[in-house]
Design a protein that fits this description.
The protein is mostly helical and about 80 residues long. It has one domain. It is built from two helices and two strands. Strands 1-2 form a two-stranded antiparallel ribbon. A hairpin with a 2-residue loop joins β1 and β2. The longest helix is centred in the middle third of the chain and has 7 residues. It is globular and about 40 Å long. About 5% of the residues are buried.
Length: about 80
């Protein structure tokens, strides 16, 4: 979501020079977009993504963090990806 008040950074144009827009990447566990560049869209015959990725805002779910961590058999936990003063 490059256009969010929750971000200390963000962008208004994609790397291809298009106006950036917000996108839902995953909804209810279902992948909704690949966030393809113009090049990637042309190579795959899929739709170009509304942004270049990064600058993500993830809405909280209903499952407690401890329960999520307990359910993971193998993986990495990164508690912080960015800092906002």
């Amino acid at each position: 979501m490059p256009l969010s008040d929750d971000l200390s950074g963000g962008y208004f144009l994609t790397g291809d020079g298009y106006e950036a827009g917000n996108a839902t990447i995953i909804d209810q566990g279902i992948l909704k977009t690949f966030l393809l560049s113009l090049y990637g869209a042309n190579k795959t015959d899929l739709e170009r993504g509304p942004n270049s990725g990064g600058s993500l805002v993830i809405d909280p779910g209903k499952t407690a963090l401890d329960d999520i961590i307990k359910s993971v058999q193998q993986g990495y936990y990164y508690p912080v990806f960015w800092w906002k003063p």
